[in-house]
Amino acid sequence: MVVDPNPFSARLRRQIIAFAREGRRLLSNWNEPGGGETLSPKTRLQWEKRFGELEKAAVSVSSFSLYPLLQQVWEGHSRLVRMIRKDLATIQGTEPAEKTGEEVVEETAEDPERNKEKHEDCPTPPKKPVPIGGHVLPPLPYPYEALEPYIDAKTMRLHHDEHHKSYVDGLNKAEIMMAQARKTGNFNLIKHWEREAAFNGAGHYLHTIFWEIMSPKGGGKPSGKLLKQIRKDFGSFEAFKKHFSAAAEKVEGGGWAILVWAPRAQRLEILQAEKHQNLSQWDVVPLLVLDVWEHAYYLKYPNKRKAYIRAWWNVVNWPAVECRYLQARKLFWKPY
C-alpha cells in the first residue's frame, strides 16, 4: 500500500474508496425480483468486480494516476444510480424521471470498461471552497512520460513540479498577505499583492486546465456539440486550428493561446494572453489552453515554438475540452 504524505492525494484516495464501497452497497441492496433488464446478473457481477478493482487501485497507484481513477469510479457510481432508477421505473410501470439541463450521458451503456474519456461522462467536481492560502498543486492525470514523443518527460517534470508549483506558492502567499492587510487595515502594499495574485492565480488556473486538456490518447478532432460550435463560429475545424496555431505562435514573449466561450457574444473566440493575465478578456470561460512560455517546450524544441505547437495537437484531450464547453455554454448574458 502506498503511504501518501500528501494530504491532497490522500483525500483523493479516500474519495475513490468511498465511491467504490458505496457502489458495492447499492448493488447488494438492489435485490428487486423481476426488475428491468438493465441490471442483469451478468451486469451486476461486472460492476462488483470493477468497483473492487478500483478500491484496490486507490491504495496502490501513484498520485499521478488518482485523477483518472477518481473520474472512473465517479462515472461508474453515477451510471449505476441511473440504471437502478431505470429498473425502478420498469418495475413500477412508470417512465424514468425526465432529464434536466445539459445531460449528455449514455443511458444504455452497461459496460464499466467503456471508453473512459468519452465526453458523455463528464465528472462533476466536488463543491468545496479553497481556504485562503490553501491552493495545492494538482497531480498530473498521467505519468510524466505519457505524452512522449510529443512532450518529453523531463519538460513535464520541470513544468509541473517546479513552474506550476511556484504559481501555487505565489498565489497562496498573496492571498495570505491580503488577508493580513484586511485584518490590520494596512494596505500600503496592496498594489503589489494584487499583482502577485493576478499573475500567480492566472498561472495556477491555466496550468490546471492545461494538464487536463491533454492526454496520451489525445489528438484527432473534437466531436458532437463542440465540433458543431467550432464549425459554426470558425467555418471549419481546419480554419479554427490554423487560427489557434497562429495565435499561439505570435504571442509576444511568454503566454498562452486560449479558446474561450463568450457568454456575452454567445460564441467561441480565440484569445491570446501575455504572461498569464495580460491582453485577454474578462467575462469568458477558458476551454482549450496552450502554454507557449519557453519553459513548456525549450528542452525538446529549442527556439522552435511552431514545431512544438504542431506536435501539441497530437495530445489534445478533446473529450475533456467538450466537457468544459458543455458546462460553459449554459452561461448566456444579454448580448451587446
From TrEMBL:
The EC number(s) this enzyme carries: 1.15.1.1
Keywords: Metal-binding, Oxidoreductase
Domain Manganese/iron superoxide dismutase C-terminal: 222-322
A Pfam family recorded for this sequence: Sod_Fe_N
One GO molecular-function entry: superoxide dismutase activity
Positions of the UniProt region annotated as Disordered: 92-134
Biased composition (Basic and acidic residues): 111-122
SUPFAM superfamilies reported in the protein's UniProt record: Fe,Mn superoxide dismutase (SOD), C-terminal domain, Fe,Mn superoxide dismutase (SOD), N-terminal domain
Alphabetical list of Gene3D superfamilies matching this protein: Fe,Mn superoxide dismutase (SOD) domain (1.10.287.990), Iron/manganese superoxide dismutase, C-terminal domain (3.55.40.20)
Enzyme class, UniProt record, top EC level: oxidoreductase
Domain of life: Bacteria
Family: Belongs to the iron/manganese superoxide dismutase family.
Name of the molecule in the record: superoxide dismutase
Lineage, top ranks: Bacteria, Bacillati, Bacillota, Bacilli, Bacillales
